Amino acid sequence: MDTIASLFSFITTPVSWVIVQFHSVYGKVFGPDTGWAWGLSIVSLVILIRICLIPLFVKQIKATRAMQTLQPEMKKIQERYKNDKQRQSEEMMKLYKESGTNPLSSCLPILAQSPFFFALYHVLNGIATGSTIGVINDSLLASARKAHIFGAPLAAKFTDGSSKVEALGATLTDVRVVTAIMIVMMSASQFYTQRQLMTKNVDTTVKTPFMQQQKMLMYVFPVMFAIFGINFPVGVLVYWLTTNVWTMGQQMYVIHNNPTPGSKAQAAYLERLTKHVTHHEKTRSRGEKAIVKAIVSKGRDRNEFERKFINSLTKVGLVAQPDGTVAKGETAAVEAEDGTPTTAAPRRQQPKRQTKAQRQSAAAKAADESAENAVEDAEPKTSLTKSDEPEDAKPATAAKKPAPKPAGGTRSKAQSGQRKGPQRPKSPSKK
Questions:
Q1: How far is the C-alpha of 279 from the C-alpha of 295, rounded, in Å?
Q2: How many CB atoms lie within 10 A of CB 93?
Q3: Is 105 helix (H, G, I), strand (E, B) or coil?
Q4: CA-CA distance, 155 to 121, in Å (whole number)?
């Protein structure tokens, strides 16, 4: 143990110094020997470490996005070598190497904070054994040994015997109940974080070995935390539970505001973004502009959720611009499922509904017009000059002969506006 502690001496001293500085602040509020002062010091240490790891977390997100761009190539490799798993794995690793991506990039935050975890473990182990470590002197060591969290000392473990627990001023029942609850909470938070990642923020259209690995870790990590947790001091359990809660909240924020393309989280995000943009007719935040800009730049490589987003904007007369903004457009072009732009048929304009009074006035006007036309047709038409010959002296050839019947017994086609069948000859007009 001393050999391992000496290996981590370069980090145990800074960690112990940070804990002491936070303890001096919380000790003035809660008292220097209370579990709140020491427990909150450990929680503050976790928050400080995770804030320092935010750039690494951003790098992890970028690496994950780079992995998403390789999904089409991964799908081709799966289809090409679907009967040869070994060759499929070799081609996948070759693709990772050529593109410069790392499928294990999601483990970077855990690996980066591992030295701090081991340093804190050795600091708390020194408190349990009564030995000073780092900047923790004898007075601080005595104060830390008196600190209890819900009746359990900071340095106590689930596997400790009754004699060791009594030396720390506690009972074995209190220690085991508190540690068991914290182990269950730690394992449950780890399982929920991994499950949230697999069910909401993963592109389900492509099944890759990386996804299978993450699914396996979803069940392996909680079991590992439960097994190793019984050997962790209460202070280390506080550290690990705090970092799990931080990771869960940080991941929820990323999934809600910057989801993985092709995932269920992206479908929900684009649905919310569609309602927001169509209501305000613009993108307001920088994050919204970045999402819209990325979707526009994809062109025909958009997935079904992104095409649905573009089509929803087009239907209301908005067009997404390359810079991430939206503007009103006159065209009604939408994209098909394969990304091909098609022109949407214009909506049929329904006639405006008239009131009852308007309909009655229109009917009365039509009736008056038809009556006037009937009167005009009934009046006899005479020529201005009368003929001297009697009417019966006119030659019979003057009368209009009926049209000859078509040959072959076929009916002549009715002209436009006339009814079918032979037409009734009109009477000759009187002159």
A1: 20
A2: 12
A3: helix
A4: 9
pLDDT higher at 354 or 27: 27
Q: Are 39 and 31 in contact (CB under 8 A)?
A: no
CA R_g for the chain: 43
**φ/ψ of residue 226, rounded to 5:** -70, -35
| Local structure of 81: helix, strand or coil | coil
Report yes or no: 292 and 276 within 8 Å, Cβ to Cβ: no
| Both tokens assigned to 17 | 């110094």
Reported confidence tier of residue 47, pLDDT bands at 50, 70, 90: very high
Selection from 221, 419, 172 nearest residue 411 by Cα: 419
C-alpha of 88 from chain center: 30
The reported pTM is 0.66
Q: Which residues contact 400 (CB under 8 A, 6 or more apart)?
A: 425, 426, 428
Per-residue pLDDT tens over the stretch 213-242: 667 777 888 888 888 888 888 988 998 899
Q: Which residue from 297, 239, 359, 269 is spatially nearest to 69, judged by alpha carbons?
A: 297
Q: What residues contact residue 369 under an 8 Å CB cut-off, 6+ apart?
A: none
CB atoms within 10 A of CB 13: 16
Model confidence band, residue 397 (pLDDT cutoffs 50, 70, 90): very low
> Contact at 8 Å (CB) between 240 and 120?
no
**Cα–Cα distance for residue pair 233/158, rounded to 1 Å:** 8
Q: What is the pLDDT of residue 33?
A: 87
User: Which stretch of 193-202, 228-237, 261-270 has the lowest confidence by average pLDDT?
Assistant: 193-202
* Integer Cα distance of 173 and 161 in angstroms: 11
383 vs 431: CA distance, rounded Å: 6
**Secondary structure element (H or E) that encloses residue 7, with its range:** helix 2-7
- Decide if 295 contacts 302 (C-beta within 8 A): yes
The 3-state DSSP class for residue 371 equals helix
Among 115-129, 252-266, 268-282, 393-407, the least confident range: 393-407
Q: Which two tokens stand for residue 301?
A: 């490589």
Place of tokens 């017994």: 409
Provide CB contacts within 8 A for 186, sequence distance 6+. 225, 229, 237, 240, 241, 244
Work out the pLDDT band at 290, boundaries 50, 70, 90.
Answer: confident
| Per-residue pLDDT, 367 | 74
Contact 144, 16 (CB under 8 A): no
3-state SS of 142-192 is HHHHHCEECCEECCCCCCCCHHHHHHCCCCHHHHHHHHHHHHHHHHHHHHH
